[in-house]
Amino acid sequence: MANYVALRDRRLQGGVPNRPRLTIINTDENTSLRSAFAQINAAARTGRINTLFILCHGFAGENTRGAVCMDAGGMGLLLGKENMLHGNVSMWRAIANKIDNIVVYACGAGDTQPGNEGTTADGKYLMGALAIHTNASVFAADKIQWYSTFQNSPHGRFDFGDWEGTLWDFPPTGTAATPVLSAPVEFADVMSGTAP
């Protein structure tokens, strides 16, 4: 039976109810990512984790080179005290070889605007680096993601709906990302009990 983990930053309004085979790890601006990694490693003691869902805000909304506000991203994830940034993505080696897939539900996580290649706004590089450091396939989209919560309550269960933009599969081998229609397991599959 597959194991799943939801790594949720509390600054993203909504909740994650308990489900069989799902470990829920919450972070906020005071939670060290090292603490989250320790909990992920503990969850992996019962078997390799099939999918880690990262539920958080992405740093999105501008093209820094173009100095304009737009549907852009790639600058990192608002996750825990340290955030996930180009300068600290190597921290994720702490959970290497424990997870098959990482699915990132965050705005613009896999976005790289023209001219931002090789900068701190290169989301494709960041998600590719995450895949390499964790030795997991990473799935992230290149547009701002919209979501709602069931019962329209700030603590209701997340409903991410369809992916906005293109969803990319970043392989752990470091080869080029490829567009895909969906992740191998979506968060909605775990919530509905239809995940393998």
What does this protein structure show overall?
- This protein is of the alpha/beta class and 196 residues long.
- The chain has one domain.
- Helices cover 15% and strands 26% of the residues.
- The protein contains three helices and 13 strands.
- The strands form four sheets. Strands 2-1-3-8-9-12-13 form a seven-stranded mixed beta sheet, with helices on one face. Strands 4-7 form a two-stranded antiparallel sheet.
- Helix 2 links the parallel strand 8 and strand 9.
- The radius of gyration is 15 Å and the shape is globular.
- The model has no long low-confidence stretch (mean pLDDT 90).
Summarize the structure.
With 196 residues, this protein is α/β, with parallel strands linked by helices. It is 15% helix and 26% strand. It has one domain.
